[in-house]
């Protein structure tokens, strides 16, 4: 007997463990099935031994084989046997086996006869992990019998002192309920208690179980709603929150009152998500994101939430000066679609956006005007019986845009007619005022058109129309409307008189409104230089004895005026007065469409204006959303935009190919990345009108570049600025940049100086004694049309990341009569590839390298590569400095070394247009960047 | 409920499979194959959730997956689970593996599949989420590893002792 034990122990030392099994399987790739069947035979032998350790090892191997799809049910008895061992190690492996695959009858008998006492014994074991493993195992093979017998034990465990046991016990109760439903009723109070367990893990387990239960039968769990509500507002665990929201989703259909209570906490959650969106948008996804938001706007119940969505959409679109908008037609249609919202408080916001876009994006005006005309035409739909509603504010913008840019109108007469409808008189006063003023502008345009043709009668009819309709506005209670209307009425009457005398008046009427109104930069005033000899603080007159007179108060157009202040005459103005003025100025700027609002704060002021606050918001329940007829759907733009981008992409590719063919020599072009953000060109040439600055404004540091840059005249094509970056083999910290300068001007270039802004990592090597900001003289001059090459050495510390350096080239251009000093900015791109050096490697050394296990791996997949495999390899070799180690059919291994001695190994495989590259390197970030660059190379072909 | 958790590599080789419902070995292999076909065809930039995979649960089945380097982590769940919640869980799982194996890679999963099972059993039990807090998971895994080690050491010492005595 003793001998047998010894023999068993010694044998054990030569047994395969799980790792050996895995290694064996991997080494027998060709005859895997055969190898595994011998392994299974071995396992069978092992299971027959008395030694429990041997058996446990065998069971451990079975778990692996089961995953590979081999039947292990024949070992069920042994598995249970090992499970019953007293050693923790052995049990762990068993609990992983999916024992349910065993014949149900067999297992019931086995468990009932052998392991029931064991499991129960385990359940009260002093060690929490013993009990834990037993519970985990049990979760895999609960049977109705086991559930019945163990239910009360597990219930006791739910109040165990250790949270680790409690949470496992709570979770497993669900399985017990499923198999033995009678246990639910007695166990439920305790389960409910666990919802308020001090340990978050137990709490989350209880929520999990109740959610699963409630999914099948929600109405039994309605009584728990208050408890869950409390949890939802107090819990910070995302998992618990998600589960509770899911649960409420099932409960609300049964208890409608619940819905109302949920709005607040839920909107809080949603707001957090919306804030995330703000930072997430890019040119590519903006349209898609806004489309999704618009869907939510349509579905949203409750005006508060809808308003929130609306402001978010506008915030997202207008952020950083419309940076992400590539198609303004789309944006205008979004704004128009937003006007369909009933009961929104943000009519103002939409209106200010419409004005801002129409004024600043010239190319969009034709489109915007057409849209606004339709809006005006359907103005009654917007106002309807809701004239107290905030959305009618958009008509203010619509009327102004139609008036100011009336030359783009297709049918100005119709718009004029729409603006003078009697219904307009029900609009708020400040809107009517804009209507009246812009009707006059439209009138001018219409007259011009009509006088241009022979039909002079039509022109007179137009005048008559105004004379008929304007009196309605003259009677307005609003002073502003009244004043404008009567002024214009008199003007038109006079015009009519002239018309009757067959005098051409259109020219003069138009002159009334001539001149373009450009937006003024908020900083403009600050920028006006004070002329020499002007002392703003000096008195012009004798100091007046009384307060300032208001005689020369200028009259502002279009807006409700706050009293405007002339330049302060007192040098000492008290704080209060200053604050008041600032406030007044802000108000004024907010109302002035010509003022560009830079910060959201000024927009806020706009919303908080008392006028809006006082409009009572009447909620009207309309089940059918209003549709403004004839409006384009923004969706169409989305589709169009996608098609356009597609086309552009293919065109760009064509172009690039052409360029490549034209390209001569060795240099790789540095720019032209994969389709990046900046590459998406706007739909039409959109110029965001630069803000108007006073003449001879002083340039200051915080300002953007002057558009009238004198360098525009300089005709140097940046594309022709070719360079090549190469690592220095001898020195691991040096790279040499060869730059080819080509003079494309007609003039002689001399005194060229090359300078680069050093980064922490990369520095231009300058001669000793020079400061790090000095430039390096280029050792030659360039006659017109000539090119030459110069080399510059850079020292580099870390080579694992690509880098871009900014630099400037200054030079003197010599013309016949004068010479000017010019400069050219450029960027140097140090790719990771440029740090690699083609190094040959023998296959055995290569294999050794791979085996060392010190290399980190990564992989890359390229789709749709249509080129022969050897071309592909050549391309990688050429562009990325690799050498082929070995090539077998459509599979090749490649090698390269960085200047700092990093090994980079590639395994390239191809099969029908898909190329997969598995790569290994001792520096993961270098590898990642090199792979990105390879991907980039292939995305261009 | 989570019905199955699968990890396979870019070629469809299973690296871990854990089924919380009972299927025959053949069906399990079919499910893995089917899931691999569904998931591997998808681009890197498309949604991480998909419905389908008729073998598990029929229509009430969602696949939530993430692709890390050479491995796909796929959770098959029913409609009671939230997609984003599960996605977060996958992240927790992978981060935990990364902590336990120090820079986890496919080979770790191949050779230490028992350990991966072990970690997983601290996160998901019987198809229900047990713990989502990574620190908590790691604490328990470490404690159990320690226990195992001390047992193994004790056992081997005992064995050596017994051999010496008997010889």
Could you explain how this protein is built, in words?
Chain B: InterPro entries: AP_complex_ssu, AP_mu_sigma_su, APS3, Clathrin_sm-chain_CS, Longin-like_dom_sf. Chain B: It is a peripheral membrane protein. Chain B: It is found in: Cytoplasmic vesicle membrane; Golgi apparatus. The complex is a heterodimer of chains A (941) and B (167). Chain A is an alpha+beta fold and 941 residues long. Chain A has 35 helices and 14 strands. In chain A, strands 9, 10, 11, 12, 13 and 14 form a six-stranded antiparallel sheet that branches. In chain A, a hairpin with a 4-residue loop joins strand 12 (891-898) and strand 13. In chain A, helix 9 (144-157) runs antiparallel to helix 10 (163-179) and helix 20 (365-377) crosses helix 23 (412-419). The longest helix of chain A has 29 residues, at 634-662. Chain A is flat and about 125 Å long. Chain B contains five helices and seven strands. The interface between A and B is large, with 69 and 55 residues.
Estimated structural class of chain A = alpha+beta
Structural class assignment of chain B: alpha+beta
- Please outline the major beta sheet of chain A: 6 strands, antiparallel
Number of helices of chain A: 35
Helix content of chain B: 40-55%
Distance between the termini of chain B: 56 Å
Give the C-alpha Rg of chain B: 18 Å
Could you describe the largest sheet of chain B, including whether it forms a barrel?
Answer: 5 strands, antiparallel
Mean pLDDT of chain A: 74
Quaternary state reads heterodimer
Mean pLDDT metric of chain B: 86
């Amino acid at each position: 007997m003793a001998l047998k034990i010894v023999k068993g122990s010694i044998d054990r030392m030569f047994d395969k463990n799980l790792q050996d099994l895995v290694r064996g399987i991997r080494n027998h790739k060709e005859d895997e099935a055969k190898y595994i069947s011998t392994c299974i035979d071995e396992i069978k032998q092992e299971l027959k031994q008395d030694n429990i350790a041997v058996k446990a090892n065998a069971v451990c191997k079975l778990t692996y084989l089961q995953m590979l799809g081999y039947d292990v049910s024949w070992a069920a008895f042994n598995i249970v046997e090992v499970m019953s061992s007293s050693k923790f190690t052995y049990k762990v492996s068993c609990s992983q086996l999916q024992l349910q695959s065993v014949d149900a009858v067999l297992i019931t008998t086995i468990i009932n006869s052998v392991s029931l006492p064991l499991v129960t014994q385990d359940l009260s074991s002093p060690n929490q992990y013993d009990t834990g493993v037993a519970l985990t195992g049990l979760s895999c093979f609960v049977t109705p019998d086991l559930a019945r017998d163990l239910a009360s034990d597990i219930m006791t465990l739910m109040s165990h002192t250790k949270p680790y046991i409690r949470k496992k016990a709570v979770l497993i109760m669900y399985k017990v309920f499923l198999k033995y439903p009678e246990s639910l009723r007695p166990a439920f109070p305790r389960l409910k208690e666990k919802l308020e367990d001090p340990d978050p893990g137990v709490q989350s387990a209880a929520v999990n179980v109740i959610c699963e239960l409630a999914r099948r039968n929600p109405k039994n769990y309605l009584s728990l709603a208050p408890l869950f509500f409390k949890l939802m507002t107090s819990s910070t665990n995302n998992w618990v929150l998600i589960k509770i929201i899911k649960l409420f989703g099932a409960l609300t259909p049964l208890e409608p009152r619940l819905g109302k209570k949920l709005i607040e906490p839920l909107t809080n959650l949603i707001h957090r998500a919306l804030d995330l969106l703000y930072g997430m948008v890019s040119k590519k996804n903006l349209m898609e994101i806004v489309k999704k938001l618009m869907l939510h706007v349509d579905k949203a119940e409750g005006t508060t939430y809808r308003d929130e969505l609306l402001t978010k959409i506008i915030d997202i679109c207008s952020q950083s000066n419309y940076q992400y908008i590539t198609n303004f037609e789309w944006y205008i249609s979004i704004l128009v679609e937003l006007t369909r919202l009933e009961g929104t408080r943000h009519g103002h916001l939409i209106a200010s956006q419409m004005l801002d876009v129409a004024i600043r994006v010239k190319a969009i005006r034709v489109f915007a005007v057409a849209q606004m005309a339709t809006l005006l035409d359907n103005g009654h739909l917007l106002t309807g019986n809701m004239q107290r509603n905030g959305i009618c504010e958009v008509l203010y913008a619509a009327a102004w845009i139609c008036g100011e840019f009336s030359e783009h109108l297709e049918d100005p007469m119709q718009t004029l007619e729409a603006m003078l409808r009697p219904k307009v008189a029900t609009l708020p006063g400040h809107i009517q005022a804009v209507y009246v003023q812009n009707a006059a502008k439209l009138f001018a345009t219409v007259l011009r058109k009509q006088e241009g043709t022979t039909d002079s009668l039509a022109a007179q009819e137009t005048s008559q129309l105004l004379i008929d309709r304007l009196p309605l506005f003259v009677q307005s209670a609003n002073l502003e409307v009244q004043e404008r209307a009567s002024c214009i009425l008199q003007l038109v009457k006079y015009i009519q008189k002239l018309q009757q005398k067959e005098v051409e008046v259109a020219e003069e009427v138009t002159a009334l409104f001539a001149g373009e109104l450009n937006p003024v930069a908020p900083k403009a005033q600050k920028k006006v230089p004070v002329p020499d000899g002007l002392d703003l603080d000096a008195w012009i007159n004798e100091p007046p004895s009384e307060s300032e007179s208001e005689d020369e108060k200028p009259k502002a157009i279009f807006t409700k005026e706050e009293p405007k202040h002339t330049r302060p005459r007192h040098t000492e103005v008290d704080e209060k007065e200053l604050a008041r003025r600032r406030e007044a100025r802000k108000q004024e700027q907010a109302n002035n469409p010509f003022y560009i609002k830079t910060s959201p704060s000024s927009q806020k002021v706009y919303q908080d204006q008392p006028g809006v606050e006082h409009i009572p918001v009447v909620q009207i329940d309309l089940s059918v959303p209003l549709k403004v007829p004839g409006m384009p759907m923004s969706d169409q733009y989305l589709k169009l935009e996608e098609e356009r981008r597609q086309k552009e992409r293919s065109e760009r590719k064509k172009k690039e190919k052409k360029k490549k063919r034209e390209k001569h020599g060795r240099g790789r072009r540095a720019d032209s990345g994969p389709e990046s953000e900046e590459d998406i060109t706007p739909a039409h040439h959109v110029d965001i009108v630069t803000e108007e600055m006073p003449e001879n404004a002083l340039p200051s540091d915080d300002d953007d570049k002057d558009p009238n840059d004198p360098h525009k005249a300089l005709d140097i094509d940046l594309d022709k600025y070719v360079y090549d970056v190469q690592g220095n083999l001898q020195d691991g910290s040096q790279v040499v940049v060869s730059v080819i300068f080509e003079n494309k001007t007609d003039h002689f270039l001399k005194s060229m100086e090359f300078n680069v802004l050093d980064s922490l990592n990369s520095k231009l090597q300058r001669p000793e004694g020079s400061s790090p900001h000095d430039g390096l003289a280029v050792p030659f001059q360039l006659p017109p049309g000539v090119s030459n090459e110069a080399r510059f050495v850079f020292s580099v510390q870390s080579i694992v990341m690509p880098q871009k350096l900014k630099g400037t080239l200054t030079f003197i251009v010599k013309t016949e009569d004068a010479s000017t000093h010019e400069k050219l900015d450029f960027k140097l791109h140090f790719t990771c590839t440029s740090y690699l050096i083609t190094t040959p490697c023998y296959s055995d050394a290569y294999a050794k390298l791979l085996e060392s296990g010190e290399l980190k791996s990564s992989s890359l997949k390229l789709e749709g590569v249509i080129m022969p495999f050897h071309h592909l390899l050549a391309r990688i070799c050429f562009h990325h400095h690799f050498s082929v180690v070995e090539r077998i059919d459509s599979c090749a291994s490649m090698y390269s070394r960085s200047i700092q001695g990093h090994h980079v190994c590639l395994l390239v495989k191809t099969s029908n247009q898909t190329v997969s590259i598995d790569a290994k390197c001792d520096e993961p970030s270098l590898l990642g960047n090199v792979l990105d660059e390879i991907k980039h190379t292939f995305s261009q072909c | 409920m989570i019905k199955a958790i699968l990890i396979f590599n870019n070629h469809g080789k299973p690296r871990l499979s854990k089924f919380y419902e009972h299927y025959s070995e053949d069906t399990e292999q079919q499910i893995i194959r089917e899931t691999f076909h569904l998931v591997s065809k998808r681009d890197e930039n498309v949604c991480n959730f998909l419905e389908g995979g008729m073998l598990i649960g029929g229509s009430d089945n969602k696949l939530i997956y993430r692709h890390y380097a050479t491995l796909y982590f796929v959770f098959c769940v029913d409609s009671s689970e939230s997609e984003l919640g599960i996605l977060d869980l996958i992240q927790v799982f992978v981060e935990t593996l990364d902590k336990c194996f120090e820079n986890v890679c496919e080979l770790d999963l191949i050779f230490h599949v028992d350990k991966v099972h072990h970690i997983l059993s601290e996160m998901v039990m019987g198809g229900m989420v047990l713990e989502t807090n990574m620190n908590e998971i790691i604490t328990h895994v470490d404690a159990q590893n320690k226990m195992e080690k001390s047992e193994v050491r004790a056992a081997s010492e005992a064995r050596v002792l017994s051999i010496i005595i008997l010889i």
